[in-house]
């Protein structure tokens, strides 16, 4: 059995690993529930770095390649640290033709970051995703669980302000 101390990454603190372990212990078929385990890991840690993927693979007694394959396939999962609020701009066909690329550029400019970087205040990260399945609302932006439809570049500052609160954009 692998000990938590075997992991040499300070990001994987014992308290968070204990939370994940407790969750895994409640599942009857953890291997069959890999996506649920990964969702919980993402919720607890904020992202799923390679070291955590390896920990999950060992804990579930499955190959690390399988875990990484799931993490890298689904756009919900992130292997890199993100800001408290992850801004995802849909780049599916409907969103793209309705101006999603300009929306991404506007978010990056307003927040003064590049894609996948974290803002200095650690509040925001911006990424583009393949499709969020809301083509009728194109272009679509999600911030965490909140969905914004028919977004224009003019909406970007307000969306940021909604999550930043009273702080100046």
From TrEMBL:
Q: Which cofactor does it need?
A: [2Fe-2S] cluster
User: This protein is called what?
Assistant: NAD(P)H-dependent oxidoreductase subunit E
Keyword annotations of the record: 2Fe-2S, Iron, Iron-sulfur, Metal-binding
Family assignment? Belongs to the complex I 24 kDa subunit family.
Record's Gene3D superfamilies? Glutaredoxin, NADH-quinone oxidoreductase subunit E
Native source species:
Candidatus Xianfuyuplasma coldseepsis
Cofactor binding mode and count: Binds 1 [2Fe-2S] cluster.
The residues that the entry says bind [2Fe-2S] cluster are 90, 95, 131, 135
> Which GO MF terms are attached to this record?
2 iron, 2 sulfur cluster binding; metal ion binding; oxidoreductase activity
**Top-rank taxon, per record:** Bacteria
């Amino acid at each position: 059995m692998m000990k938590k101390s075997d992991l040499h990454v300070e990001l994987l603190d014992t308290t968070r690993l204990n939370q994940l372990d407790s969750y895994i212990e409640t599942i009857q078929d953890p291997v069959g529930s890999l996506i649920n385990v990964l969702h919980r890991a993402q919720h607890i840690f904020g992202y799923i770095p390679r070291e955590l993927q390896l920990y999950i693979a060992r804990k579930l007694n499955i190959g690390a390649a399988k875990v990484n394959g799931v993490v890298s396939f689904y756009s919900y999962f992130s292997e890199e640290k993100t800001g408290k609020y992850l801004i995802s701009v849909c780049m599916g066909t409907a969103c793209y033709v309705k101006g999603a690329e300009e929306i991404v550029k506007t978010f990056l400019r307003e927040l003064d970051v590049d894609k996948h970087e974290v803002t200095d205040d650690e509040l925001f990260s911006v990424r583009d995703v393949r499709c969020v399945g809301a083509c009728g609302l194109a272009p679509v932006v999600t911030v965490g669980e909140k969905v914004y439809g028919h977004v224009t570049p003019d909406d970007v500052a307000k969306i940021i302000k909604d999550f930043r609160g009273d702080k100046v954009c």
